[in-house]
Amino acid sequence: MTEQDDTSRAASRGAGLAAVVLATMGFSWGYIIVKLIPLSAPVLAAWRLAIGAAVLVAVALALRLPRRRLWLSALAGVAFGVHQLLFIEATKLTAVAIVTLLGATQPLLVALGSRPIARERVPLPLWGMAALALFGIGIVVQADMGHEVRSRAGDLLAVLNVFAFTAYFLIGKRARMGGEHTVTFTATMLTAALVVVAPFAFVAGFEAPAAGGAALIVLLALVPGNGHLLLNWAHPRVTAALASLVLASVPLWAGLWAHLVLGEPYTWRHVAGMVLVAAAIEGGRRFEARRAISAERNFRP
Hints:
Layout: H1 3-36, H2 41-63, H3 70-93, H4 96-103, H5 106-118, H6 124-144, H7 152-177, H8 182-204, H9 211-222, H10 224-234, H11 240-247, H12 250-262, H13 268-298
Helix pairs in contact: 1-9, 1-10, 1-11, 1-12, 1-13, 2-3, 2-8, 2-9, 3-7, 3-8, 4-6, 4-7, 4-12, 5-7, 5-11, 6-13, 8-10, 9-10
């Protein structure tokens, strides 16, 4: 393996990390958009999935993209559909801070599930970075606790959502590592998720949104929604542990957008928490880079 190969692999890892960061930005806006759309969770989820699936299925068919392991893509879609129902309902019922805090525990679940599902071993330093990120997020959420209406039902749904999203994340990682094309995988995943969500939407009373709501749904489908496309593209380039660590910063960004759009507080504690999470992400990135370079050099002929 040459120095040029090292540079190429480093660039690929850097591009993968950049994709996860962009996805994180999109996901953080999702909470705000959901709060602004006056539709029930199943109906909103159905519209969001229908738009995303229609666009990506059309792209996949037009480009005649290859299909390999559709059963894994569909299985990821089932988990994603459950996640959409739980995430939207929890966000509508309880505080964004609670939903995002619980979601930030995902790196720990990923660490437990990476070995059997994604076939990756999570080293001890990344556990430490995940703990540091959670500590920073805890500071942020504690600062918000007294400013939002909470619901026990919403809190419970937020807990269940963490497990649903982790299942989707790890199954998606497995499918992408198996060679499934990014667009094909995401199109299949969204279609399967729509099949899961559609019955709940019709039971809830399927309805068309008003003009303003329709624009927000399109925004939700194409901005936070395309975050999943970026995340799926990044799977072969970034380990599940590092990607989930970056995703742990969603609560911090969501808190900032909530302050700017919804008037929620954003204090020095939010800034302190963001610094800790940023430090954890950078520490994880550097560790992964060193480990990857070391592994590549050890396998040189």
